[in-house]
Design brief:
This protein has 40 helices and no strands. It is mainly alpha-helical. Pfam families: HEAT_EZ, IBN_N, TPR_IMB1.
Length: 854
C-alpha cells in the first residue's frame, strides 16, 4: 500500500489531467472508506526518508487540511472529527509526526510542524494534550543528546505554528521553558541561520503570550537583546524577522523599548537604506507602530483614562532625522499598477502619523523636500512631493500652512493634466485633502476656488482612478462648505455644474472601476446636503432625472452576477441621494413623494440587504420631510416596516426600520390607524423577548414604545400592562461582565426604560388617564434606587438626565399621590447630582425635577 499511496500522491500533482483526476479520486475514496487508517498512512509517507519530496509534502498537506477550515463552524466540526478518533490512532499519528520534526529533509520537518500546529492546537484546546509543549521540548532535548542535527529547528518551527494557531488564548503554559528554548535558538553560538530564523519566527508568533514575562527586567532585557541581534543579523531573512519582532513588541509592550530605543533607531535608519525592500518596510513599520502607540497614549491622557504606558515621546526625539528618511522613501514608487503595500506606502502613513504627533513642527522638516521635488522633472520625485504635502495636512494649522498651500495649489491644478497618471491621481488626492483639513485656505479666494472646481470637473473625464479622487475631492469640498442655514455660499455659483458633471460621471461605462460611480454619487449627496438656500430650486429640478435613473435600474438586463452587483450599487446610491434631497427640500418633496415611495418599494424586491437599508433610510427621510403628508403611503409601506423589524439576521435593517417607525409616530401622531400601532406593539414586544435578536438593538426598540405612547395617548391603555411588564424585566438586567460593551449595553437599556416610562405617563396625561400609571410607581422607585446604587461611572449625564426627567414627570403629573414616596434619599441624590452637572440641559432638568419634589 505504501508504494501505491506514493504513486497516488504523485499522480494527484501530475500535469497530465487524466492522471491528476485519477489521483484526486483515489485520495477522496481512501478518505471516505477509512479515514483513520488513511491518515496513519499519510503520516508514514511524510516520515519516510526514501520517498519523494512531492509525495511527502502532499501527504502532510492532506493530513493538515483534513482538520483546518477558515469558517469557525466548519473548523469546530473538523476538530470534533479528530477528537472522536480512537486514542491509539491519534497517538500513533502524533508520534510519527513528532519524530519527523528531526528529519534531515527541511520540507518534511516543516510540513510535519504545520500538521502538529493544526492537530496539536485542537488537542491542547480540548485538554487532550495538556503537556504538548513540554513533550515537544523534552523530545527535542533527548534528540539533541543523540546528535539529531535538525531537531531544534523542527521543534521551534512547530512551536511557531502552534503559537499562531493558539492566538485566541491569553497565555501559554511553561512560558519560561518555551522562552528558554526560543532564546537559545536565537542566540546560541551553535545556531545556524535556519535555526535562528525558526527561533525568531517562533518568538514573533508567541510574543503576546509572554507579556507577563516582560514584567521581569532580566527576561525582558535578554529577549530585547535577542530581537535586536536578530534584526542586525547579516542573513536578510533573519534580519527581517527580527525587525518584525521589534515592530510587534512596540505594540505589545511599548514600555520595553526604553533602554533599547537608541540601538533600534540606528538599526532602522540603516534598514531604511537597505537594498532589501522587506527590511526597509519593517524599519518604517517600527516607527509607524511607535507613532500609533504614542497617539493612543496621548488620547488616553486627554480623556483622563488610566494607562500603564508612559509616553516617552520617541517620535519627537527622532523626527529631525526620521522625517527626511521617510521623505526619501516616498520616491520608491512603482511606475505602473499599484504593487500593493510597500515602502513608499508605509512611509506615507508614517508621515501622516508623525504630523498628528508633532503637528506644525513637521512643516519645517518637510518643506525643503516638497519645494525641491514638486517641480522636479522626474515623475516619481514630483509625486513624492505631492504625497508628502498630502501627508502633513492633518495635524497642522491652516495659518502655518497657508503659504505652502498658496504655492502648491496652482501646481497641483496644472498637474491634474500631467502626462503621468500617478501624478494626476496624487494631485487630485492632495486637493481633496486640502479641502478636508484646510478649506479656509481656499474658500475666500473666488478665483482660486473657481479654477480648482473647474480643474476637478475636468478630471472627472480622466481614467477611473483619477476621476474617483476628483469626485472625492468635490465631496470634501461640499462637506467643508456647510452653508445649509445661509442664503448663499462660495459654492452656490458652481452648484449645477458640479451636479451635472458628477451625474455624467455616474453613467460612465467604467464607473465600477476605482469606486468611481459610488464616489460620484457620494459627492452629489454631499453637495445637496450642504449647499445654501439659493440652490434649492435647482435641487428640486434634479429630483425627476434621478428618479428616472432609478426607474431604469428596475428593467436592467441581469445576465451575470456582475450585472446584479451593478444594479444594487446604483440603486443603493440613488436611494442615498434621494434621501438627502428629501432632508433638504422638506415639504417641497411632496410633489414627488408617491413616485419616490413606489421606487423605494420596488428596490425592496432586490435580494441585496444593503439596498434595503438605503431604501429604508430614504423612506425615513420622507417621513420626516412630509409629516402627516406621509399618511397616504403608510398602508403600502407598513409591511416593509414589519419585515424590517423582524429581520434579526440583518441587524442594520432592523435598526433602521425601528428608527423609521419611531419617527413615524413622532410626526403623524394620532392619525396612525389602531390596527397599525397594535401590530407595531406586538412585533416589538416579540422581538425584545426573542434571543435571536442582537441585544444592542433592544434599547432602541424599547424607546419606540415611548414614541407610540406619546403619539396615541389614551389609546395606549390596551398595551399598558404588557409593555410595563417588559419594562420591569428590562430594568432588572444587570451587568454580567466587567467590560465596556456590557456596561454600555446595560446603560443604554436602563436609560431607554426610563425615557419610555416618561413617554407613557405623558401620553396618558394628554387623555386624562394618568391614574392608570399609579400601580407601576413602586417598581419605578425600586428601579431608581438600583440605579442610584450602581457604580459612579454607570451614572453618566445621560442616565442622570433620563432618571431626573422621569422623576419630574411622575411627580408633576401625579402630584401628592406619589410625592412623598419619591422624596426618599436615593432619588433626592439622583436629582441633586443633576443639579451639579456641568452640562446645561442636565442641570436644568435636575433643577426642574428638584422643584417638583419640594
Amino acid at each position: 500500500m505504501s508504494e501505491e499511496l506514493t504513486q497516488i500522491l504523485l499522480d494527484a500533482q501530475s500535469t497530465d489531467q487524466e492522471k491528476r483526476n485519477h489521483g484526486m479520486e483515489m485520495i477522496k475514496s481512501a478518505k471516505d472508506n477509512n479515514l483513520p487508517v488513511f491518515l496513519v498512512l499519510l503520516a508514514e509517507e511524510l516520515k519516510s526518508e526514501n520517498k519523494p519530496n512531492e509525495s511527502r509534502q502532499l501527504a502532510g498537506i492532506i493530513l493538515k487540511n483534513t482538520f483546518v477550515s477558515k469558517e469557525e463552524q466548519k473548523k469546530n466540526e473538523l476538530a470534533n472529527v479528530w477528537c472522536n478518533f480512537k486514542e491509539d490512532v491519534r497517538t500513533e499519528i502524533k508520534q510519527i509526526l513528532v519524530m519527523t520534526l528531526g528529519s534531515p529533509n527541511r520540507i518534511a520537518r516543516h510540513t510535519s510542524a504545520q500538521v502538529i500546529g493544526a492537530i496539536g492546537s485542537i488537542e491542547y484546546l480540548k485538554d487532550l494534550w495538556p503537556a504538548l509543549f513540554s513533550d515537544l521540548i523534552g523530545f527535542m532535548e533527548q534528540e539533541v543528546q543523540k546528535g539529531t542535527e535538525n531537531i531544534q529547528e523542527g521543534v521551534l518551527t512547530c512551536i511557531g505554528y502552534l503559537a499562531e494557531e493558539l492566538a485566541m488564548i491569553e497565555e501559554l503554559p511553561n512560558v519560561n521553558e518555551i522562552l528558554e528554548v526560543i532564546s537559545d535558538g536565537m542566540t546560541s553560538e551553535n545556531s545556524n541561520d535556519e535555526l535562528r530564523l525558526s527561533a525568531t519566527t517562533a518568538l514573533y508568533n508567541s510574543l503576546e503570550f509572554f507579556e507577563s514575562a516582560f514584567g521581569k527586567p532580566q527576561i525582558r532585557d535578554h529577549l530585547m537583546k535577542a530581537m535586536i541581534n536578530a534584526a542586525k543579523n547579516q542573513n536578510q531573512k533573519v534580519s527581517q524577522k527580527g525587525l518584525e519582532c521589534l515592530v510587534k513588541i512596540a505594540y505589545v509592550d511599548y514600555n520595553s523599548l526604553e533602554n533599547f530605543i537608541q540601538e533600534i533607531y540606528e538599526i532602522t535608519m540603516k534598514g531604511m537604506t537597505a537594498d532589501n525592500d522587506l527590511i526597509a518596510l519593517q524599519s518604517v513599520e517600527f516607527w509607524n507602530t511607535v507613532c500609533e502607540e504614542e497617539l493612543e497614549i496621548f488620547e488616553f491622557i486627554l480623556e483622563e483614562e488610566e494607562d500603564s504606558r508612559v509616553n516617552k515621546k520617541y517620535i519627537q526625539t527622532v523626527s529631525e532625522n526620521l522625517v527626511p528618511n521617510l521623505c526619501r522613501l516616498l520616491t520608491f514608487q512603482e511606475e505602473f499598477e499599484d504593487a500593493g503595500w510597500g515602502v513608499a506606502q508605509a512611509a506615507t502613513v508614517s508621515l501622516s502619523l508623525i504630523s498628528n504627533l508633532i503637528e506644525n513642527q513637521i512643516i519645517e522638516l518637510t518643506i525643503q523636500f516638497i519645494s525641491d521635488n514638486i517641480v522636479h522633472n522626474e515623475w516619481d520625485h514630483k509625486e513624492a512631493a505631492i504625497i508628502c504635502l498630502s501627508s502633513i495636512l492633518e495635524g497642522t494649522d491652516t495659518d502655518q500652512l497657508q503659504k505652502v498651500i498658496d504655492d502648491a495649489l496652482p501646481l497641483l491644478l496644472d498637474y491634474l493634466e500631467d502626462d503621468h497618471e500617478k501624478v494626476r491621481n496624487s494631485s487630485a488626492y492632495a486637493i481633496g485633502r486640502i479641502f478636508e483639513y484646510h478649506f479656509e485656505a481656499v474658500a475666500l479666494k473666488k478665483e482660486v476656488l473657481e479654477n480648482t472646481v473647474a480643474a476637478l470637473l475636468n478630471s472627472l473625464l480622466d481614467v477611473p482612478h483619477v476621476a474617483s479622487n476628483a469626485a472625492w475631492a468635490l465631496n470634501n469640498l461640499a462637506e467643508a462648505n456647510d452653508y445649509t442655514d445661509q442664503n448663499t455660499s462660495p459654492l452656490s455659483a458652481f452648484f449645477m455644474p458640479i451636479v451635472e458633471k458628477l451625474s455624467i460621471a455616474t453613467l460612465r461605462e467604467d464607473g465600477e472601476k476605482s469606486n468611481l460611480r459610488f464616489q460620484a454619487y457620494e459627492a452629489i449627496s454631499a453637495t445637496f446636503l450642504k449647499s445654501a438656500q439659493d440652490t434649492l430650486d435647482d435641487m428640486f429640478l434634479a429630483v425627476n432625472p434621478l428618479l428616472e435613473r432609478l426607474e431604469e435600474t428596475f428593467s436592467m438586463e441581469l445576465l451575470s452576477t456582475n450585472d446584479e452587483i451593478l444594479q444594487s450599487q446604483i440603486q443603493g446610491s440613488l436611494c442615498g441621494v434621494l434621501q438627502f434631497m428629501a432632508v433638504r427640500l422638506g415639504k417641497e418633496i411632496e410633489k414627488h413623494a408617491e413616485r419616490m415611495i413606489n421606487c423605494f418599494l420596488e428596490v425592496f424586491k432586490n435580494p441585496e440587504a444593503v439596498v434595503h437599508e438605503e431604501a429604508m433610510m430614504a423612506i425615513d427621510s420622507l417621513i420626516n420631510a412630509l409629516g402627516t403628508g406621509f399618511l397616504p403611503y403608510l398602508e403600502a409601506v407598513h409591511p416593509y416596516f414589519i419585515g424590517g423589524i423582524n429581520s434579526h439576521q440583518q441587524e442594520r435593517l432592523c435598526s433602521l426600520s425601528t428608527n423609521a417607525v419611531g419617527d413615524l409616530f413622532k410626526t403623524i401622531e394620532r392619525q396612525i390607524p389602531e390596527k397599525c400601532h397594535s401590530e407595531y406593539v406586538d412585533v416589538f414586544l416579540e422581538a425584545i423577548g426573542t434571543e435571536e435578536f442582537e441585544q444592542d438593538l433592544k434599547p432602541d426598540m424599547i424607546l419606540v414604545f415611548g414614541d407610540i405612547a406619546l403619539s396615541i395617548c389614551g389609546e395606549f391603555v390596551p398595551h399598558l400592562e404588557r409593555v410595563t411588564e417588559m419594562l420591569e424585566q428590562a430594568s432588572t438586567v444587570e451587568i454580567t461582565e466587567d467590560d465596556e460593551d456590557s456596561i454600555f449595553y446595560v446603560q443604554n437599556l436602563h436609560r431607554s426604560v426610563l425615557e419610555t416610562y416618561s413617554g407613557i405617563i405623558q401620553g396618558l396625561k394628554d387623555d386624562q388617564k394618568e391614574k392608570l400609571f399609579l400601580p407601576y410607581c413602586q417598581n419605578i422607585i425600586e428601579f431608581l434606587v438600583r440605579i442610584h446604587d450602581c457604580e459612579q461611572d454607570f451614572l453618566d449625564d445621560k442616565m442622570l438626565k433620563a432618571a431626573a426627567g422621569l422623576i419630574g414627570d411622575i411627580v408633576s403629573i401625579l402630584g401628592n399621590q406619589v410625592k412623598e414616596a419619591f422624596q426618599i434619599q436615593p432619588i433626592q441624590e439622583i436629582v441633586n447630582a443633576c443639579t451639579h452637572s456641568e452640562k446645561k440641559l442636565v442641570y436644568e432638568v435636575g433643577r426642574w425635577a428638584s422643584s417638583k419634589l419640594l
